[in-house]
Amino acid sequence: MNDILTRIGLYGVMPIVKIRRPSDALPLAKAFVSAGLPVMEITYRTEHAEGAIREISSEIPNMLIGAGTVLTPAQAESAKAAGAKYIVTPNLDPKVVGWCLENDMPILPGCATPTDVANAAAVGLEAVKIFPAGALGGVDLIKSLSGPFAGMKYLPTGGVTADNMLDYLRLPSVLSVGGSFMADQGLVDAGDFDAVAAKARAVMSRMYGFALAHVGVNCPDEASAKKAASLMSAMFGFEPAESAKAVFVGGQLEFMKSPYLGEKGHIAIGTNFLGRAMFRFEQMGFEFNRSELKYDEKGALKAAYFAEDFFGFAFHLIQK
Length: 320
Hints:
Layout: H1 3-11, E1 13-17, H2 25-34, E2 39-43, H3 49-59, E3 64-68, H4 73-82, E4 86-88, H5 94-102, E5 107-108, E6 110-111, H6 114-122, E7 127-130, H7 133-136, H8 138-146, E8 153-156, H9 165-169, E9 177-179, H10 185-189, H11 193-208, E10 211-218, H12 222-236, E11 240-242, E12 246-249, E13 253-256, E14 265-271, H13 274-283, E15 294-295, E16 301-305, E17 313-319
Parallel strand pairs: 1-2, 1-9, 2-3, 3-4, 4-5, 6-7, 7-8, 10-13, 14-17
Antiparallel strand pairs: 10-14, 11-12, 12-13, 15-16, 16-17
Helix pairs in contact: 2-11, 3-4
């Protein structure tokens, strides 16, 4: 898949904004960047769209900025010249799609029917927008489309909210979700970009769903691990569960039968989307121990250790 589309998928959420005042563009972009979400779609619904894209792409070159509600090849051309990195349309317009393909511009055209998706696939597109997703059937529609069009990825917009976004994102065929729910127009009009950033952080926190999964304690030998597990079981009534390498008690305490990673042990943090979480931390400058990646029986990544230990513990992310 195109690198731009891959990055859109790794961010998971795409803010869709309408610029009413030119002065709002840069503060709004900075608000999303501060929330760890350097991606946004600026719609061509006002005369300020092209200027906003140009200013943001100049001042924040790492911002993954796209142009939305593009209706003509001329708009697509102006958006690319201004610095847009991808195009989003409300419908499947052959002229706009053709221009983007000829000019090596990633495009997410709006699709509403199986015929739309088939036509997009026929010209080599790997991802499309589903719009208006809520009105068309939402999650059920995308599940139905994923059968006959197994290779296609979807960006649902329209009716997507912070409350239902996980229902979409959990579908393997969903690339990302888009919406204006992080850029509340009232907050933007009031110039309260701190509140916009806070809302974006809350949305991202909900998407990642970070939570303590378990704590692993390094024991010198198997006897010590079993002794510790028996003590916890006697004290708190936790049921032990033994594996080849450790004894679990209560589901969140793991006593290792021999020292493993970390001086003291390891701490596991669960997340809704392991790949997206790893991308987030790598963008923050953290590294992962690639030799310790763990996969399930189907070949899906299930655990990833950070390369660095923290206060004596190895940390790893696990897929919920």
